[in-house]
Amino acid sequence: MGHLVRGVVAVVVFVVVSWVVLCQGDEDTDGISAVYIVTLKQPLVAHYDVSLDSNGKTPFNLNRLHRPKRNNSRSDGHSGSYLSRFHDSLLRRTLRGENYLKLYSYHYLINGFAVLITPGQVGKLSQRREVANVVLDFSVRTATTHTPAFLGLPQGAWVQEGGPEFAGEGIVIGFIDTGIDPTHPSFSDDNSEHTFPVPNHFSGICEVTSDFPSGSCNRKLIGAQHFAASAITRGIFNASQDYASPFDGDGHGTHTASIAAGNYGIPVIVAGHHFGNASGMAPRSHISVYKALYKSFGGFAADVVAAIDQAAQDGVDIISLSITPNRRPPGIATFFNPIDMALLSAVKAGIFVVQAAGNTGPSPKSIASFSPWIFTVGAAAHDRIYSNSLVLGNNITIPGVGLAPGTKDKILPMVSAIHALNDEETNVNDIPVGECQDSSILNQDMVEGNLLICSYSIRFVLGLSTIKQTLETAKNLSAAGVVFYMDPFVIGFQLNPIPMKLPGVIIPSPNDSKVLLQYYNSSLERDEASKKILKFGAVASISGGIKANYSNSAPKVMYYSARGPDPQDAFLADADILKPNLIAPGNFIWAAWSSVGTDSVEFQGENFAMMSGTSMAAPHVAGLAALVKQKFPAFRPSAIGSALSTTASLYNVQGGPIMAQHTYTNPDSSQSPATPFDMGSGLVNATAALDPGLILDSNFDDFLSFLCGINGSAPVVFNYTGQRCGMSNINAADLNLPSVTIARLNQSRTVQRTVTNIAGDESYFVGWSAPYGVSVSVSPTRFLIESGQKQVLNISFNATMNSTLTSFGRIGLFGNKGHVANIPLSVIVKISSISTQS
Description:
By secondary structure, the chain is α/β, with parallel strands linked by helices. The protein folds into 4 domains: about 25-135, Alpha-Beta Plaits; about 140-385 and about 555-695, 3-Layer(aba) Sandwich (Rossmann fold); about 390-540, Glucose Oxidase, domain 1, CATH 3.50.30; about 695-830, Immunoglobulin-like. It is about 20% helix and about 25% strand. The protein contains 20 helices and 42 strands. A hairpin with a 4-residue loop joins strand 41 and strand 42. Helix 7 packs parallel to helix 15 (about 615-630). The longest helix has 18 residues, at about 615-630. Residues about 1-30, about 45-80 and about 835-838 have low confidence and may be disordered.
């Protein structure tokens, strides 16, 4: 989901996403055309060869994956493929003589198309025997210098892969986001001493436009396309802001791509200060960009599905999605929406899909990425912090934030903007006056060489005033530095470090701001008669916030990170699926920024930006998954997810439990030990994931059986996949996932998990802690498993007391050669009578 900060994070009102997304198309009116996604009953091209046989018919009985050869046309309905022609023919036959506009043909992951039609035309299409579903298009939104070290890559995972110059080699990560700035050094291919070939399995293209000229792609950035037909059809595409090309006019896509796969050792210089060298998690991997989200409006499912379809056809190994729906998608169940079903087909094609959990936490069931075939990532803090402070003349030290230099121990006078006006008639109660946005109204003689005190009001949160403009004012007036105090009306906001060239500090606490103002006002010397200020007696020094320290308690689940379990579904009730799958660093992340990125005005014109959100956490895992895929090229997506999950860390850097924040306001004061619904399996541990010992694997047929177990789903499953539901349907708790979630335990329940040994022969001991109100037994409790062999574990739950609250436990598999696999348990007991057994 969208990255969370633009210098300040809203935590009471939902200013937690990158864009305010226009939801045109989410509602329909009789007679008014809208974009619909139409899926057909014929099987998918991703699963069947569409070559015509000698009789001119399509042999849809071929049961193998097929990747059509690319031609020079875009996959937008004009590629000349069989399905594209069939889609055109169906529309012509159904809507004879009527106006409509086909936007895309989807012919690799789902068989269907996006079309602009009226409600009356929707009815005609829905009645066709070839048509499976007609869904109204819906809107979507977007959801490091130190994190490689925090995650132990330099001494761990990178060493196993041969060093950072080889980490991720041969793996292609596809980013569906706001595009990329190809000029950024994080994506250059000329800083490698080794050959850097484009993988043979990749067949994508590099779209060339005036904004994205020839030569933009290279051996690092190997593919780039943009998808905006749905937005253009709605008349909301702004070419001057959004760029009709893969170029990133926002910054978000450039940021996420560099987190996962940015080059190693790129200097991070912001506001003239050096903040270290940045690297992606898999610095040797390749990047292919599929731009489907835009600065001015966000994005739409029709464009996102087209991007996913193209990425899979191109042959990417991993898809990174820092986006989520704006609302619950329509359909028989949450899972049956075009995006998730396209991603299910991508998983069948062997693509590991990572998605941001969403920035809608900390409420339970706030998760925005829910399907079991998608790997969902929540956001955690890491241990690096930038702290700044203001030391007053009365020896009181006030903590603050700001990526700014200090005053070098100089003690300087302080002058408030409202006391330094040129015109005495100016209304000092006018909010903008105190925000220091206009140097022309302030007296330079009074400000020069002093610390200028300015108000940080709600206008900064709304983007009406900016730190950048305040700094420009201070520069114009020759101020020695800037001190911001928090307006008392701004409550429930968490400030983030903001780059400043001048010495500066922002005091985030209203109470601390009162301390500053009391000291300042009490130090003023006034004429008793006129009350005119004769002397500014308050003095202070700024300690400076350029140098990082690593004392932050970490990891901890950030308050905005969406929480599980899977949200309730009108058709499925609780889905018995643990979400998120795990957490990764997502707070205060340094990464590349687009040269014209305007989403954060404070970083405008910079090459790097510090952002927060689950959008930043997801690409960490996408990059780390590339390392796993590099070592285990035959792993299915579920096996990669299992390796990441069962090896995740359960403890913070101090050795205590990982904590989770639970409130927007003063989040550190409301922490408690994180549960699996907060953090999934724990914090990603890349080094351990490269040697998991045991894995729990699932395949497409398992997910199909799960979908078939949803009441009334059989026709929808057939429509999307071309496969009929059999009798061996299962529910979510029976999926071979590296977790067990049971939302309604009635008396007792037994589930199975099958582990596969990918290491050498090893003996395992099984231990567990039972959820409260439940007794647990696992058999066998000991087993010897040979390399490549499987072992079935029977996990039995028996209720011992009734409870409406979820309780948590854990199963640990401990090998005698050091391998450990953790399986989190989550159970709610809902029964009418309780057995007396314990």
